[in-house]
C-alpha cells in the first residue's frame, strides 16, 4: 500500500461532517446501552462523554478503560473509529468504558488542528487555558482512576501506523499486540526515529517526566492523575481514511482483548 502523497505542510486529505458523525455516535451509543453526559457546550456543539458499565460482575472491580478521539480537527479517523467501535460492540464483558469521541468539534469544520480560537488543545493540559480543556479536566477529576487510557490520533507526516506507550511501572505492554493487529490493515512506520524519538517496530516507549515539559498533551495529564498506562495511537494520515479508521479500530480491539 502506497502513500497518497496528498499531505504537504499539513493534512490535505478527506474530511468529515462532524455534526453528522456526532449524531451517529450518540445513536450508536444509545443502541448498545451506553449512557451520555454533556460536560461542555457552546452555541454550536455539545461535548459529551459516553459510558458503558461492565456487563459481567466479577469478584474484582471492573477493568476501567478510557478512550478519547478528535482532539485535533484535522484528524478525522479518530471520531470515525470511535463510531465503528461503538457499532461493533465487541468489548470485554468485565470492562467499564469511558469514551470521549470528539474533544475538538470546533476544529473539524475548519480542518484545523486547533480549535476555533486557534488553540491546540493537546498542548493545553498543564495550563488549562482553553474552555474545552478545563471542562474535560473537571469531568476527569470526577472519575475514578483508569487501568489504561487510549488516545486516538493521526500523524500527517507518518510513513505508517505507530504507538506511543507510556508505561512507567513496567506493566505488561499492549503496544506489540496493537502493532500485530494493524499489520494486515495498514503499513507500520518502521523508522528508527519518529517525531524525534527512538522507535522500534512502530513503538515509541518514552521514559518521560511530564514535569520537565512546559506543555502537556492529554496523555500527560492522564498519566499524572488517572492512569499508569497510556497509549497514543497514531494512524498515518497520508493513507485512505477508511484504512486509518480500520487501523485504529483493530489496535483498540486488540488491546482491550488482553483485559
Give an overview in words.
This protein has helices at 18-31, 77-88, 131-141, 175-182, 218-225, 241-257; strands at 35-41, 46-52, 63-68, 95-100, 148-155, 162-166, 193-194, 197-198, 203-204, 230-236. With 259 residues, the chain is α/β, with parallel strands linked by helices. The protein has a single domain, classed as Aminopeptidase. An eight-stranded mixed sheet has the order 1-2-4-3-5-10-6-9, with helices on both faces. It has a two-stranded antiparallel ribbon with strand order 7-8. β7 and β8 (197-198) form a beta hairpin. α2 (77-88) packs across α6 and α4 packs across α6 (241-257). It is globular and about 45 Å long.
Amino acid at each position: 500500500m502506497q502513500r497518497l502523497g496528498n499531505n504537504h505542510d499539513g493534512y490535505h486529505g478527506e474530511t468529515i461532517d462532524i455534526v453528522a458523525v456526532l449524531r451517529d455516535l450518540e445513536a450508536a451509543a444509545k443502541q448498545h446501552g451506553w449512557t451520555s453526559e454533556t460536560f461542555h457546550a457552546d452555541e454550536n456543539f455539545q461535548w459529551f462523554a459516553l459510558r458503558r458499565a461492565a456487563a459481567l460482575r466479577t469478584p474484582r472491580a471492573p477493568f476501567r478503560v478510557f478512550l478519547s478521539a478528535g482532539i485535533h480537527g484535522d484528524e478525522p479517523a479518530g471520531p470515525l473509529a470511535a463510531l465503528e467501535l461503538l457499532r461493533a460492540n465487541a468489548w470485554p464483558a468485565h470492562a467499564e468504558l469511558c469514551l470521549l469521541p470528539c474533544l475538538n468539534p470546533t476544529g473539524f469544520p475548519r480542518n484545523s488542528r486547533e480549535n476555533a480560537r486557534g488553540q491546540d488543545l493537546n498542548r493545553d493540559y498543564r495550563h488549562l487555558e482553553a474552555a474545552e480543556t478545563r471542562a474535560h479536566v473537571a469531568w476527569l477529576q470526577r472519575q475514578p482512576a483508569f487501568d489504561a487510557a487510549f488516545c486516538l490520533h493521526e500523524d500527517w507526516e507518518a510513513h505508517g501506523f505507530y504507538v506511543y506507550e507510556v508505561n512507567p511501572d513496567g506493566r505488561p505492554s499492549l503496544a506489540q499486540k496493537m502493532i500485530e493487529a494493524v499489520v494486515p490493515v495498514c503499513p507500520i512506520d518502521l523508522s528508527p526515529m519518529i517525531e524525534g524519538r527512538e522507535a522500534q517496530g512502530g513503538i515509541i516507549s518514552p521514559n518521560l517526566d511530564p514535569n520537565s515539559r512546559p506543555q502537556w498533551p492529554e496523555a500527560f495529564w492522564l498519566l499524572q492523575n488517572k492512569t499508569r498506562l497510556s497509549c497514543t495511537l497514531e494512524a498515518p494520515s497520508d493513507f485512505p481514511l477508511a484504512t486509518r479508521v480500520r487501523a485504529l479500530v483493530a489496535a483498540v480491539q486488540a488491546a482491550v482483548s488482553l483485559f
